[in-house]
Amino acid sequence: MAAVAQAHPGNATISPAGTGSARLSDVFWRNPKLFLALLLCLPLLWLGVVYLGSLAVFLAQSLFAIDDFSGLVTYEPTLATYRQLFSDANFDIILRTVLMATSVTLASIVIAFPIAYYAARYAQGVWKAVFYLGVMLPLWSSYLVKIYAWKLILAKEGILTWLFTQLHLLWLLDAWLAIPVIGGNSLSVSYTGTFLVFVYVWLPFMILPIQAALERVSGSLVEASADLGAHPRQTFRHVLLPLALPGIVAGSIFTFSLTLGDYIIPQIIGSSRLFIGQAVYAQQGTAGNLPLAAAFTLVPIVIMGVYLWAARRMGAFDAL
Amino acid sequence: MRSDRLDRAPLPLKISACLGLLFLHLPILLIFLYAFTTEEKSYRFPPPGLTLQWFAVTWNRPDVWAALTLSVKVASLATAIALVLGTLCAAAVSRSAFFGREAVSLLVILPIALPGIITGIALRSAFSMADIPFSFFTIVLGHATFCIVVVYNNAVARFRRLSGSLVEASMDLGADGFQTFRYVILPNIATALLAGGMLAFALSFDEVIVTTFTAGQQSTLPIWMLEELIRPRQRPVTNVVAMVVVLVTLLPILAAYFLTRDGDHIAGAGK
Amino acid sequence: MTAILFENVSRHFGSVRAVDGVDLAVAEGEFFAMLGPSGSGKTTCLRLVAGFEQPTSGHIEIFGETAEGVPPYRRNVNTVFQDYALFPHLSILDNVAYGLMVKGIGKAERRRAAEDALAMVALPGYGARKPGQLSGGQRQRVALARALVNRPRVLLLDEPLGALDLKLREQMQEELKTLQKTLGLTFIFVTHDQSEALSMADRVAVFHEGKVRQVGTPEEIYRRPKTRFVADFVGSSNVLSREQCARLGLNAPAASLRPESILLGAPADGQLGLTGVPIAASFLGPINRLTLDCGGERIVAALPAGTPVPATGEPVTFAFNRQDLHVMEEA
């Protein structure tokens, strides 16, 4: 039975180096760093040099200012652009955007949590797949089509108005629209509309991280908590919520940062007052003030940086 | 988290989870209804009548066809580039712990983590500085930049599942680096790459923000949609195009899901 | 002939000295076990032979040829991995034929060789299945066949039986031993299970903290441990302190005494005796284990089943033969 595997006396202990690709493989094996460099050179050249470089060049523009008369950028370091950024009108834009991002994030957490919790903890078999695809498909559906759908929904002659009429609740809708600031002529030109679309479009980005965090919570932890005498509400408060927190933070990073940077949604659904993204777009385009566009761009980056730092300080990632 | 207490899900939780899912899906379903409406001038609900005529009208619109063709071309080429670069990055990162490994992960994610407008403007200024005229290729490069991450995420997840001892076993049995790649690594990561490629395609096919900054006179399908959204010219055609776009993006997503189903549910994590 | 030679070999990972100045010589045709707790450097040594690791310093030879700088795929040694590392995308037959395939051997020939190898490990006709369809024990055999089909000069086994249950493990121990004798192949076997090492190997190297503490036949290692660690790790010996030795009229830093060498009752001629208080007794099937307190030091005795077990709390005298007390180098 052992005939096959009989050790060959003539079988070399170390086979000689081959030719061509085998020899090249030897070279890579002896110089793993060289191989690593070869793997990374192409992506790093594009992302690290071209992309990061152009990003840095663009953001550095904020240190210059535009000459009021010629409309050209003066290449002398100055803080004038930042002064301009914090002028009343521009500061309003920042405040408005941050408020919107905050409310969108909070609403997303409230809507996302039950979906994520159910999908992670109770859904099984086919339902697991239904919930997974039920979040993935809207996530990946065309961004513009989703906005378009809401344009149909929120239009004055659209389905929402029809629904309120059928329920004899039109007075409620009118009362809501009559509220200053969040109301407006119709839902599609109000902050309420902008808010709804933001929540809708970014919601999957909140569900997925929370679900992922909850999936990692072993069922026995919940049982242990119940076993130790905790009421379901206490279990939720003291076990599930702290463990879901990294997911909530990750999700809110998405919803917050996406809202801060978006310029298309408020342009299509909303009032004429600007958000940061629109301000950047206008400044780099029609206004031709690239330094101010760069300064505006830094706002979301700085806010997100502070947010991440604070989340880390508060221990949001400790449970990871 | 496995649970055998399906029956114990509290009713309010069940209801709010289902309402949440409905909230996510009803608006998209509405698109399908509007594609058949006879109404031309407004978004009236309920539609006064249903018709198939707008499909024929859309079919005969050269601008729609041109935009669609351009989008498919851009997405295909951007996906190809993203596949190469994303796989290279994933291979490097999962191969060894090296100095700057975290930085590479961060760098790959950055174009998608930053608001699209920042990436768009930065690339635009880079192209103008280098005197590269805006063209098909600048759109492709812009798209490839943010598509790398989805390929990367899928590939990294699969590389992680690919136990290191398989590569060692292959080398132990006499296969050199190239043979190991050809016979062991590639067959094991192929479906993840395919899934990543599908998602990259869907992402590129749908992208509008970076495209507005890197496109010249060409208009991709999303650019065409955006113009219709801002200045509606023929609403029924937009309705039909919107429905087709939903259907076209649906397919790669479903395919990607079934390709990566056993194991890493990472497919969408990178968008 | 020396199959594997280690000369002052070290492998450091940053500040961790995984392998620290190891000298070893494994003879051709030997069944050599590397025994030690996890993290003791035994697996790293195996990986150094396979070529997955490179020594930080020192010199390794395989059948007289320098191994440094030689990639794993050019070394004619093969490994049976702890997790078997079967290729999940290939059939069992293709797994076994893999080594021959990458060497460019024709399809018909490698198929025949792979089928023969599968028959050798008692898995004929399993070639069409996928690794996922086999049990742990079957996968282990496939891993063995996949390595042996290449006719390696040395077979490296990294805790190959670790994932199997007790019964299967005992069966595989015998089969491996038989296979090794029939093939006359050099086996290097890594394990943390001392009974496995003692029962299978011709010689055993005991690893601890990156160093080889003792090399010898199982009998030598068991009867004459050189250090407290070896005595403790191999068969859980009693270690008597310098004071205890002095009480027995022995001038030594430490001495080991196997539990089964202890007899109850007063010492006869040529025997030594001690007194202790039994503090615990447990029934272990063939033996009763009795723990005694001897002036603050614990001594464990293994008494054959059937002999009466003294009640706890009552002092008893016990005895052992002079030659069973083994003097060790260090405490």
3D structure, described in words:
The complex is a heterotrimer of chains A (320), B (271) and C (331). Chain A is an all-alpha fold. Chain A contains 14 helices and 2 strands. Chain A folds into 2 domains: 21-54, no CATH class; 86-313, MetI-like fold (Orthogonal Bundle). Chain A has a two-stranded antiparallel ribbon. The two termini of chain A are 53 Å apart. Mean pLDDT of chain A is 85; it is low at 1-10. Helix content of chain B is 73%, strand content 0%. Chain B is built from 11 helices and no strands. Chain B starts with 10 loop residues before the first helix and ends in an 11-residue tail after the last helix. In chain C, helix 2 (92-102) crosses helix 3 (107-120) and helix 2 (92-102) packs parallel to helix 4 (136-148). Chain C has 331 residues and is α+β, with helices and mostly antiparallel strands. The model of chain C has no long low-confidence stretch (mean pLDDT 90). The longest helix of chain C has 18 residues, at 166-183. Chain C is built from 9 helices and 18 strands. Chain C folds into 2 domains: 2-226, P-loop containing nucleotide triphosphate hydrolases (Rossmann fold, 3-Layer(aba) Sandwich), CATH 3.40.50.300; 236-328, Nucleic acid-binding proteins (OB fold (Dihydrolipoamide Acetyltransferase, E2P), Beta Barrel). Classes of the chains: A mainly alpha (320), B mainly alpha (271), C alpha+beta (331). At the A-B interface, helix 1, helix 2, helix 4, helix 5 and helix 6 of A face helix 1, helix 3, helix 4, helix 5 and helix 6 of B.
